[in-house]
Amino acid sequence: MKEDHLQRDLSPEESPERNPAAVPVEGTESDPFKLSNKVQEKPMMSLAVYNVGRQKCTPGYRWGPGIRDHYLIHYISAGSGTYTVQDRTFQLKEGDVFLIYPGMAASYQADMRRPWSYEWVGFAGTDARTILDMTDFSPDSLVLTAPSYGRELQRHLRRINQAFGNTFRESISMTGELYSLLALLVDGSSRDRTVRGRDTETVRSAVQFIEQRYSYAISVEDVADYVGVSRSTLFRVFTRQMGVSPKEYLDNYRIDKARFLLRHSELTIGAIAVSVGYDNGLYFSKAFKKITGRTPTSYRQEPSGI
Predict the structure, then answer these.
(1) Which of 155, 145, 153, 151 is nearest to 190 (CA)?
(2) Which one of 52, 125, 176, 268 is most buried, by most CB atoms within 10 A?
(3) Number of Cβ within a 10 Å radius of residue 41
(4) 69-94 pLDDT, tens per residue?
């Protein structure tokens, strides 16, 4: 890949389902391999695993520069390499952990002499940023240098891999293991978790209100009134912490709920529109197409996983 072109990775890691051929045969892990599992349906709204896997890289193996649409945590289990974000480059080695934020142009490359092996999990959801803000990660602090709990973190990554699947039950299992992994990062944080600031509480309350009331005809003004701030203040703090505006978050949340109902219920499209807070079926269809690129009818008719 040429350095002057950004690779935009808007779908999770490449393999759409567990590929037995990609699993390293016992006794051959000295050879390079890649095991990458992608979750096709993501019914969990608060936190969902997008992809999980592990890889033993060839010398100089590189990903990027590219952009993800989800959070991605890597744990380096052996070897060394470099991680570059914008104008910053980190020299990393066994035991280190690095995080990629959504929308952040990044690349990483294995060392030529001691190429690294790493394990990863990609995830997103309404809880993701709030939880990560409780850890030592931040947009200005993207690397944890050999944390003492590294091997335990690796065990959680492998449990997520073992729980992998595209059923609702498997989604719950993977999300449960992901919460445990993130709890480990929170427990190991050096930050004072008793002081989180008014802005964080405002955003948390706004997200909670949206999740509980999205099926009603609520507006951003209703959300601002509920949390006790002006609309402009809500826009400022919400966008900074969540990466999207309150209106975008509300629309995305409603459409994600609609997508689930289209695939997993026999409700009419009009009934689904009302169920997710749209009184006007035409407006619902326009909003759905704007976010997904498809009409509700075409989405419902597509095979699951597309």
Answers:
(1) 145
(2) 52
(3) 16
(4) 899 999 999 999 999 998 899 999 99
